[in-house]
Structures are given as C-alpha cells and as structure tokens.
Specification:
20 strands, 9-stranded mixed β-sheet, FAD/NAD(P)-binding domain
C-alpha cells in the first residue's frame, strides 16, 4: 500500500494546482484523475478560456507554473461594463503602476502548463487515467482502492471532482442549488479593430454578452448567455446568421467579425455546499461551489480554496499536526466558507439585477453604473475584487510560498 499525506480526487485545473502547490512545500501528494491525459491537452479539446486574476497568477508564478505560461496569455488592462449599448458605461482602467486586472489564458494552455509542472514536482504522484472504486474514510485516515488495483492510504482526502462530486454526495453534504434559465454559448472571433486588452461585459435582458481579449490583438473569446429555450435554435444557425446576431449585440465597434473557433454551449447553474469539510475530507473548486460565469470568478474561487488549504495544511504540519486533523479542517472551513458564499451570492444578485426587463429597471441600472464610475472608492473596490485582492489573502496569492 502506498502512503501519502494528501490524496486528491480530480486532476482538473484546481485539483492539479493543489497537488503542485502541496508538492512544492514537501507534502507527499497523490492526484487521481479518470481523464485521459493526452485527450485533455489535445488541440481543440475545447475552446474555453479562463480569466486568471492577478492574485491567482501570482500563485501560478510562485509554484512554478508561470514559466510554462509565458507568452500564452493576454493581459486584461481594462474592463468595460454596460447595460446593453446604452450610454453610462462603467470603465475600469487602472493606473499604469497598479498592474493588470488579470490575464486571459486558454484552458488548454493552462492544462498543458500544469501537466508540465506536475511532471517536475518531486512530491507529487499522478494516477491517470485511474479512478477510486472504493474509499474508506474514518478517524484514522483514508484508504482507497483504484480501478488499476493500486491501494493508497492518506491522512486527508480532497475532492476536486467538479460540480457533481460523488465524494461530496457520499459524505452527505447538502448543497443549495438551482439552474439558471440560461445557456452559455462559447467560441472565439477575429475582429477588425484591436481589442486593446479590454474585456467587455455587455448586459442584456436574457443574458450578458462578454468579449474577452485573446492573443493576437484582433481575437476575442465570446461567452454569450441566452435563455435556455432559445439556445438550440441559436446553435443551429449558420455561421453567417450567428455572426449577424452577435454583431447586433456588439454594435459594430470591433468592425467586421468572423468565427475563429468551434461553437459550443453549456447550461448554467449555481450550487453552494453547506460545508466544505467532513472527517478527513476537504472540498475545493466546483465540488464546493459553482457560480455564473458573469464576472469570470469561478476558477479564481477555486484557486483561492487551493491557496488557503495549502497554507492551513503546511502551517499545521510544521507544528506536527496530521494534515487530516479536525482543527486544521475547521480553520479551512472558517477561512473559505464565508468568502466563497459572499462572492457566490454577489454574482447571483448581479445576474438577476441585469435580467429584469423594462425601461425603469434599465434606467436604474445605468444610474448605478454611472454612480460607481464617478466614485473612486467604489471603483477601487470593484477592481480589487476583479484582481482577487479582497479579504484575508493566503500568502500564495501574494506570490509567496507559505
């Protein structure tokens, strides 16, 4: 039987980042992932991109992933928020010495960089493709039997399995959840006018239309939210018809547009776990919480979980505590439980606010955006949220190892 300090179920963006960060602190870690490693890093696996906040990117640099991401992302220098194409937009343009708001990175490039870093990690062992067929978790530790026949023992089990986490369900952890009546259509477009490293969030009743800067300067990712009942017809439109509808949402300010990648869609939902710990168990990422992609904070919430859990475990182990110690898990629950819930509720409120039809609600929204635009303090707070700089930051998010 192989023995580890921490066993992570799930080797996606959040799970593998956690494994690399723990290994960098000398914590013996196993990552078990059923996905084919060749498939998930193949070109064209999916067209999604992630907005990596400046604090999350600082962590990537600290744990050694940053060097493999060099030249792969596009900085977000400015965020433009508007209620449709009406006047009164909110323009977040930080001072030059404030640094970028975040970086847009194609998910495939992020997966490749994580895999390369994981290959170099001395205290990390990956079992992939493989999965746990039996898990015994009790006060004394966690024992797992894998489909390959390998048996593992760990002091702590971490579920990084995504929205439908079987480990969370098996632990009897309740979740608050609902489906939005929205579907996100995702692709990339090339456009005539350079995006100038600007992320555009244009709110419409029925769902926001987001344009996110990619390299080179005339390519942007599109995350277009539409009412779910309209999504099948929208996805069946010819390329020309779909682009014509997209151009109506953009208003022509990027000039001529053309498709630069495949179109895909996925339903949008919300869930939040009632608690993120159990006996020798911690939840991270989408296993703990999933939110609307309205502000691109989903994966960053998961990276905040990673940074907090690493700090709690590493500091505890330096004091001689077992990584599955109930005191450490209670600290993780206190640290991340409230922060992730506040962010989740705020994002949900934003979705609902901009989905109210009518002229009066639109006027109220535009007045609100104008008020924030005029208030330096309020703008500063929103920009801090975008960068991931609000709340009590774990050291990894400031770019320091624990």
């Amino acid at each position: 039987m192989e023995r580890f300090d921490v066993v992570i179920l799930g080797g996606g963006l959040v799970g593998l980042t956690l494994g690399i960060a723990l290994s960098g602190h000398g914590v013996k870690t196993a990552v078990i992932d059923p996905a084919d490693p060749v498939g998930v890093t193949a070109a064209g696996f999916d067209g999604r991109v992630s907005a990596i906040s400046s604090t999350s990117y600082a962590m990537m640099n600290a744990i050694g992933v940053g060097k493999h991401l060099a030249g792969k992302g596009c900085p977000i220098d400015r965020i433009w928020v508007s209620d449709g194409l009406e006047p009164g937009a909110l323009d977040f343009a930080p001072d030059a010495d404030d640094g970028v708001m975040g970086t847009m990175v194609p998910n495939r490039d992020l997966r490749v960089a994580l895999a390369q870093t994981a290959d170099e990690a001395a205290s990390l062992t990956r079992f992939q493709p493989d999965r746990a067929t039996h898990v015994d978790r009790n006060e004394d530790g966690v024992t797992l039997t894998l489909a390959s026949g390998v048996r593992l023992h760990g002091a702590l089990l971490v579920a990084a399995e995504g929205r439908n986490s079987p480990t969370r369900e098996a632990a009897g952890i309740n979740t608050t959840r609902w489906q939005y009546k929205h579907t996100a259509m995702v692709t990339a477009i090339d456009h005539e006018v350079p995006h100038a490293n600007t992320a555009y969030e244009i709110f419409y009743v029925g769902g926001p239309f987001a344009l996110l800067p990619m390299l080179p300067g005339t390519r942007s990712a599109v995350v277009w939210t539409v009412p779910t009942e309209q999504a099948p017809a929208m996805m069946k439109l010819s390329t020309r018809a779909w682009l014509a509808e997209a151009q109506k949402r953009i208003g022509g300010f990027l000039g001529e547009i053309k498709l630069a990648g495949p179109r895909s869609s996925y339903p949008l939902g919300f869930h939040h776990a009632a608690r993120i710990t159990d006996t020798r168990l911690a939840l991270v990422g989408d296993s703990a919480h999933a939110i609307h992609p309205i502000a691109g904070q989903g994966v960053n919430l998961g990276f905040r979980d990673v940074a907090a859990l690493v700090e709690v475990l590493v500091e505890g182990m330096r004091l001689g505590l077992d990584p599955g110690d109930a005191q450490l898990l209670a600290r993780y629950q206190r640290w991340r439980g409230l922060d992730s819930m506040m962010t989740s509720v705020a994002m949900d409120g934003l979705v609902r606010l901009f989905d109210v039809p009518g002229k009066i609600p639109s006027l109220v929204r535009r007045a609100g955006l104008a008020a924030v635009q005029r208030s330096g303090a309020m703008k500063g707070r929103f920009m801090a949220e975008a960068r991931g700089q609000s709340g009590a930051l774990p050291r990894l998010l400031t770019g320091e190892m624990v």
